[in-house]
Every structure is written in structure tokens, then in C-alpha cells.
Write a structure and sequence with these properties.
Helix content: 55-70%
Number of strands: 4
Strand order of the largest sheet: 1-2-3-4
Largest sheet: 4 strands, antiparallel
Distance between the termini: 56 Å
Strand content: under 5%
């Protein structure tokens, strides 16, 4: 009774100020003193806030991790440190409040709007990218702990949070956000794959069902629409230079700034050459026009199958032989995003292929009905020893893409 009385007292203390703020209650109508005062209108349902705001709360709640803690994180995800090591529990304890907020954000159903200032072009700050990437890695450590304790359901729940966060990373379309989205998605896939040999068929079906229910990953084609902001920024720079009484000086300063943002490790000779090429208004105009043409070609190429895209990419490189270094610096990001996109599609297929075994079980060799996204060739399973491997038959970026199943 004392406990309930204390709680009631606290409630009255909290409610009383708000009642007083409403002013005195109007007296009941004569002859109707027993009729209660009318209740205020029903409040609208409270919706979740923008997930980006919740992620920022998670960032604020995460203490700055020391080098030793970052090493623990990396070694756990690489399989070099068992999760039973005391340092792992300490790391997750430090990150607990932040991870809980991360989970709330990942489960949000509102659009994720980071508020990136696209009008600043390449100078727009995006500190949330690396911060969210770190939280995703911490969440995958939590996944490993759950698997080690035998709680596969909790492990998969946290893995789903990471998959959702990967999509939130690329909510504002740019090539860099697309690349980071795929990097996180691939880490989550590989984490699940490490534990698939201990899963039963029903667990596998649940994972496949849940993954297919996730929102689609943001595409490179979408990312390129955001890159229009860079073209707009360049156009404004040209207009500003044209209206400047010292246009040559303005062009040089703009070139120096832009190059610095694009390639901090550029050697002096390369930087000097690029600044000289951009030191006139006419060169700026030419660069802006070539940039628009390049983007249009990239948008078309980004929707094609791998082999056709490769042919288009070769032509794009050839068209930039005499172009400015600024434009040449843009193609590697596009290439990286496209490769990541095809890799992720193939890794999804590899995961589903193992989680959906044929009636007579898996056998080594080609996996019927499952092909890579690059060349359309059947995936190949090797299960003679652990870990099993699922690989594609072709070569990508100098080596075959593969997924390890089990540790």
C-alpha cells in the first residue's frame, strides 16, 4: 500500500502543474452537479521521429572509443578474438545506451532525413556516415555475443537492425553513401553466413523471409540523382566567377578548394596541373558541360547488366582523355559503387542458396538455380571442410567473390 501511495503522490506532483496551467474549472451547470466535466479531445497517435534524430542521440551517448577498444571490435568481427574475452563485455557495456538507441532508430518507420546541405557541393559535412558505420560494427559484435550464448533469435534481431541501418546510411543519395551502404550490408551478410551451419531449416526460412521483406537497397542510379547537387554547385561557381571583377583569381581559388576536397593526397605536380587547367572561366564552363554529359551517360550505364555496363564504362574513360582531372576523379567512385552493388546482389543470392537447401541436401558443385549477378554463371559450393565456401566462377576486381559458411 505504501508503494502505491508513493506512486500516486508522484503522479499528482507531476500532474498538478499542468492542471493549474489550465486555469480554474468552470462550474457545472445548475441542477447537473453530478455530471463530470467533458474530457479534452483525443490526442493524435504519436509517431516515431525521424530516425536520423534517434541515430544522433545514439552518437551522443557513445563515448569516444580508445584504440584498444577499436582493436577489440575489429578482432571480434574478424574472428580473431572470442566473444568470451572480458574485453568484449566491457566494450558492449560502454556502448549499451548508444546501442539501445541505435536499435530504436533502426526500427523506425519514418523516412530517414539527415539534413545534408547539398547546396555546399563537395564541402557539405556528413559526419553521420562514419559514426553510423561504427555503431553498425558494434551491433555486429552484439550479434556475435548472442550467437555464442545460443540465442539465435536475438542475434538475428540485431542483424536486422544493421540491415535497416545500412539502408538509412544511403537515405540521401550520393555515391559515397551508396558505397557505405553496401559495405555495411555485406558485413551483415557475412556475419550471418558464419553461423549458418548451426541453423535449422526453419531458422533459415525466417531469415530469407525477413530479408526479402526489407526495403530495397538504394541503387547507384538513385545515388547519381543526388550527384546533381555537385553539378549545380559547379554551375554556381561559374556564375560567381563570371560576376567577379577578378575572375582569374576566383577561378584559381575555386580550383584549389575543389581539388583539395576531392583528393587530399594528390601530389604537387598533379594538383598544379589541374589548377592550371581550371584557371579560366572558359575551362570551368567546359568542365561543367562535360560533367553533365558524363553524369547522363553514367545514369544510363548504371541500369544495365554488368557486361553492358563495362562496355559503357570503357567508352566513358576514353571520352575523358583530354578532360580535367576533376572529372577524371569522379569515375572511380562510380565504378566502386557499381561493383559494390553487383557484389551485394551476388552475396544475397549466395546466402539464400545455402539457407534454402534442396530436398536431398547440399552437395559440392554448381548450385542449380542460383547464379551470380555479374556474368549469370551458376554459383559453386565447396563443402568438403569447414568453412564451406560459395563462390562465383568469374573474377571481380582481381579475385573471385566468395562467401564463407561457418567458421
Amino acid at each position: 500500500m505504501l508503494k502505491f501511495a508513493a506512486l500516486a503522490g508522484i503522479a499528482l506532483t507531476l500532474i498538478a502543474p499542468s492542471l493549474a496551467a489550465q486555469g480554474p474549472t468552470a462550474p457545472a451547470a445548475e441542477g447537473d452537479s453530478s455530471k463530470p466535466a467533458s474530457l479534452p479531445g483525443k490526442r493524435e497517435k504519436i509517431t516515431d521521429p525521424n530516425p536520423a534524430l534517434l541515430y544522433w542521440q545514439a552518437f551522443a551517448l557513445l563515448p569516444e572509443l580508445k584504440q584498444a577498444q577499436l582493436k577489440v571490435l575489429t578482432e571480434v568481427l574478424d574472428g580473431r578474438l572470442p566473444v568470451t574475452d572480458p574485453s568484449v563485455g566491457t566494450l558492449l557495456g560502454v556502448a549499451r545506451r548508444s546501442l539501445d538507441r541505435f536499435a530504436r532508430a533502426a526500427q523506425g518507420d519514418q523516412p530517414c532525413v539527415w539534413g545534408t546541405t547539398f547546396d555546399e557541393g563537395p564541402f557539405a559535412p556528413m559526419p553521420h556516415l562514419t559514426k553510423l558505420q561504427l555503431l553498425c560494427r558494434l551491433a555486429l559484435v552484439q550479434v556475435e555475443v548472442h550467437y555464442a550464448s545460443g540465442n539465435a533469435d536475438a542475434a538475428w534481431a540485431w542483424t536486422k537492425h544493421v540491415h535497416a541501418a545500412a539502408r538509412h546510411l544511403a537515405a540521401e543519395p550520393l555515391l559515397i553513401t551508396a558505397i557505405m551502404q553496401h559495405s555495411v550490408e555485406q558485413q551483415a551478410i557475412r556475419t550471418t553466413a558464419r553461423h549458418m551451419l548451426s541453423m535449422d531449416v526453419e531458422q533459415g526460412k525466417t531469415i530469407v523471409k525477413d530479408m526479402k521483406a526489407l526495403p530495397p537497397l538504394h541503387t547507384v542510379r538513385e545515388a547519381l540523382t543526388g550527384e546533381h547537387a555537385m553539378a549545380d554547385w559547379m554551375r554556381r561557381m561559374v556564375l560567381g566567377i563570371q560576376n567577379s571583377p577578378e575572375s582569374e583569381k576566383a577561378a584559381l581559388e575555386a580550383a584549389q578548394s575543389f581539388l583539395g576536397s576531392q583528393s587530399q593526397d594528390a601530389d604537387n605536380a598533379r594538383a598544379a596541373s589541374a589548377k592550371q587547367a581550371l584557371a579560366s572561366v572558359e575551362e570551368w564552363k567546359k568542365t561543367a558541360e562535360q560533367g553533365r554529359e558524363l553524369q547522363a551517360r553514367a545514369e544510363t550505364a548504371s541500369t544495365k547488366p554488368w557486361q553492358e555496363y563495362q562496355a559503357d564504362l570503357k567508352e566513358m574513360h576514353a571520352s575523358l582523355t583530354n578532360a580535367s582531372q576533376v572529372l577524371k576523379n569522379t569515375l572511380p567512385s562510380f565504378e566502386g559503387a557499381m561493383r559494390k552493388q553487383f557484389e551485394t546482389q551476388t552475396l544475397h543470392t549466395m546466402l539464400f542458396a545455402v539457407l534454402q537447401p534442396p530436398t536431398d541436401g547440399h552437395v559440392s558443385g554448381e548450385m542449380k538455380g542460383f547464379v551470380d549477378s555479374f556474368e549469370g554463371k551458376p554459383l559453386v559450393l565447396k563443402r568438403e571442410e569447414e568453412p564451406w565456401t560459395v563462390s562465383m566462377q568469374g573474377i571481380v576486381n582481381g579475385k573471385p567473390l566468395k562467401l564463407e559458411i561457418g567458421r
